[in-house]
Specification:
By secondary structure, this protein is of the alpha+beta class. The chain is built from 9 helices and 11 strands. A 6-stranded antiparallel beta barrel has the order 3-6-5-10-11-7. A two-stranded antiparallel ribbon has the order 1-2. The longest helix is centred in the first third of the chain and has 37 residues.
């Protein structure tokens, strides 16, 4: 069977077939008279098997391994491992769809949520800082690998920074820190690497609101008056450093990034005494 025929049969392009030849996955014989390459029945069967395995998600290295001599137990283990890998990928895709639905709902409700406050309990997050005062942290090689793994989950890990505002909270050590954050729930479900310098933060009670701001925490629109009113009305005091987790980032006409972020403010009831 000639290259064009095997291409039509399997759906593999001529370039892909030649690539597989160069890798040794397929063997063709050249006709001495016509100089056309032709494939025997074994190569046609292999080409179909390769297409099948690639559709299953196998890498070329895995295909090459499967087309090599294997024991029955090795063959079984290969597909057990493939099944587990695909199951993990499917779980991530389902989570990704869940996040996309949430993002779509968030974007449609941005303006409505700018002046709303919610009181939440037992919020847990993991954080990984990567920049302070415009300078990136000096990560060791293994820490850089950790950062890259977090960035690769960018739909689940989101930009984070502490939030400073006059009258709300002051630590006396105010500096612009940027990092990534992920909820503990997603971190566990995705099996995220949580080794150092990742750190954990649990907030028993927090006020959550959405703000529109620039990277340096300056508000783009609105104010925090609704926050101060909510705190006063519910007799709440701020107990720890508030922080922002960016839900939506876009670039305005002048190229400056703007953020719609969730502002988390750790609080406690002022009328409760130990």
């Amino acid at each position: 069977m000639k290259t064009g025929n095997i291409s039509k049969l399997t759906g593999l392009t001529s370039q892909t077939i030649r690539k597989y030849e160069n890798m040794g996955l397929l063997q063709a014989e050249k006709d001495a008279d016509s100089h056309y390459r032709s494939f025997d029945a074994d190569s046609v069967s292999k080409a179909i098997a390769i297409r099948y395995l690639r559709n299953m998600g196998c890498t070329l290295e895995e295909v090459e391994r499967l087309l090599s001599p294997l024991s029955y137990s090795q063959y079984c283990k290969f597909f057990d491992d493939l099944k587990e890998r695909q199951h993990q990928a499917l779980q991530e895709q389902l989570l990704l769809y869940e996040i996309t639905c949430q993002q779509s709902e968030t974007i449609h409700n941005l303006s409505r949520e700018l002046c709303s406050c919610h009181l939440l309990t037992d919020q847990s997050f993991y954080f990984l800082d990567y920049m302070k005062d415009e300078n990136s942290f000096p990560f060791a090689e293994e820490e850089e690998s950790l950062l890259h793994s977090w960035v690769s989950k960018a739909m689940f890990t989101k930009n984070y920074s502490p939030f400073f505002s006059e009258g709300l909270y002051s630590s006396g050590k105010e500096s612009l820190v940027m990092g990534l954050a992920i909820s503990a729930d997603y971190a566990y479900r995705l099996n995220i690497d949580l080794s150092s310098p990742v750190y954990f933060r649990h907030i028993p009670l927090c006020l959550q609101t959405r703000i529109h701001h620039f990277r340096d925490n300056r508000l783009k629109s609105g104010s925090l008056e609704h926050v101060f009113r909510f705190l006063e009305k519910n007799q709440l005091i701020v107990t720890e450093q508030p922080f922002l987790i960016a839900d939506c980032t876009y670039f305005s006409e002048n190229g400056q990034p703007e953020f719609f972020s969730q502002l988390y403010i750790p609080v406690a009831f002022s009328n409760i005494h130990p």
